[in-house]
Amino acid sequence: MTTERRIYLDHSASAPPDPSVVEAVAACMSGTYGNASSVHAPGRRAKAALEESRESFARLINAEPAEVYFTGGGTESDNHALTGAVAALRRREPDAALAVSAVEHHAVLECAGHLAGTGVRVVQLPVGSDGVLNLGEAERLIPSGPGVTSVMLVNNETGAVQPVTEVASLVRTRNGVMHTDAVQAFGKLAMDVRALGADIVSFSGHKIGGPKGVGALYVRRGTEVDALLYGGAQERKMRAGTENVPLIVGFARAAELAERNRAALREHASACRSAMLDELRKDVPGLLINADGKGVPHILSLSLDPAVYEADGEALLMSLDLQGVAASSGSACTSGSVQPSHVLLAMGRDERTTRATVRFSFGAGNTLDDARHAAGLFRGIITRFLRTSTP
Ligand SMILES: Cc1ncc(COP(=O)(O)O)c(C=O)c1O
Questions:
Q1: DSSP percent split of the chain into helix, strand, coil, nearest 5
Q2: pLDDT (tens digit, 9 = 90+) per residue, 307-352?
Q3: Angstrom distance (rounded) from CA 77 to CA 219
Q4: Alpha-carbon distance 263 to 123, whole Å?
């Protein structure tokens, strides 16, 4: 059965752009086509648009414009942060290690794996069953000498908010470098990089209604980070290559809107989440809420108890899609096979529970009725997966 009513509950995968973002990108592409490195008037116009975007974004996060580098998205920002900070530190401290939380995005974990392959000692920091970093264990495991530590601010699968400020002060006492992936946090939490205390912070455009393939990296003045790409002198020699001014302008515009609407969106997301849960709590057995009470309200991650259901996330998602609801599963498709979520496994969920997980994520375009309607559909779908006998 297919349906006409479409409900998009996958804002954490990619958020739809405001029309003014699309207009800003299009206007820049047609009107500001010069190369920002050219000395002529069209080039200077592009350079001005680039630097205005940098100033505007820097203001939003309480940074200096010279501390903001535009990148090709969240993955690139994370890779640049880790590889660049580790390489710079290891020139001075050849044994410098890297500590990453067990629930980081693949952009951090896979990069850490690559660095481990080059001889860097990598330690993983565990989380509790609530999805939140175990601070006691972090204190024990974070290298006592200079090293690089990466702990995300908001987890993309569960919404769990991590104690980044606390970890950053610990890292500072050990003369280390602190990176945080704030890709899912910008527009959801107040963003003041100075108060946060991290030395390096990653951002992405399309999670906040900006274009895909653009993001930013904040690098605190004085923090040593090696370049990612070599060539021209763009982005103060940190990332060579002609700057993608239209996407950067779109990113800056989206960031401005996300920050302006942050409080209203939080309230709205919270209402949507509650509406969905109220509907689901009506006689639905075996529903587990991941990181409940520990996360941002924009994300609702639900697992089905395998003692009650025989379900997997992909089947649930397909059924939801057929009924017009777009959501995500708690798994990642790697090399064609569906892997159980490393985030939920790190929280101590067993593999079967991990596979039977759906993430709903809310945005300004959702109505409370959408949330209730989607919950009703989900309730109907999962009853089809109820076990008829005990496993
Ligand atoms: C926490 C987190 N970090 C990094 C990324 C990667 O960002 P991008 O899609 O811009 O490469 C994502 C996207 O899913 C994310 O959720």
A1: 45, 20, 40
A2: 999 998 999 999 999 999 999 986 655 555 678 999 999 999 999 9
A3: 11
A4: 36
Shortest CA distance to 205 belongs to which of 167, 159, 249? Answer: 249
How far apart CA 90 and CA 113 sit, in angstroms, is 17
Q: 333 catalytic, yes or no?
A: yes
Ligand 1 binding pocket includes 80 (Cβ within 6 Å): no
> Nearest 5 degrees, angle CA 133-CA 134-CA 136?
140
Which ligand 1 atom lies nearest to the CA of residue 155?
1
pLDDT band at 390 (very low <50, low <70, confident <90, very high): low
Q: Cα dihedral angle (259, 265, 269, 271), rounded to 10 degrees?
A: 150
Domain extents in the chain: 7-16+262-383, 19-260
Domain 19-260 top-level CATH class: alpha beta
Beta strands in 220-366 (DSSP E): 287-289, 299-304, 325-326, 328-329, 332-334, 337-339, 357-361
Tokens encoding 326: 């777009």
pLDDT digits (tens, 9 = 90+) for 97-109: 999 999 999 999 9
* Separation of alpha carbons 106 and 89, rounded Å: 23
**Nearest C-alpha neighbor of 358 from the set 313, 296, 291, 319:** 313
Please say whether the beta carbons of 329 and 11 come within 8 A. Answer: no
Centroid of ligand 1 to alpha carbon of 283 (angstroms): 35
Token pair of 256 as six digits: 């401005």
pLDDT digits (tens, 9 = 90+) for 7-18: 999 999 999 999
Contacts with 363 (C-beta within 8 Å, 6 or more apart), sequence order: 8, 11, 15, 16, 265, 269, 298
In the block, residue with structure tokens 């974070």: 142
Q: Whose CA is nearest to atom 14 of ligand 1?
A: 13
Taking the C-alpha atoms of residue 372 and residue 275, their distance in angstroms, rounded to an integer, is: 6
**CATH architecture assignment, domain 7-16+262-383:** Alpha-Beta Complex (3.90)
Q: Which residues on adjacent β-strands are paired with residue 289? A: 302
Q: How far, in Å, from the CA of 35 to the mean position of ligand 1?
A: 28
Q: Do residues 121 and 340 touch, judged by C-beta distance below 8 A?
A: no
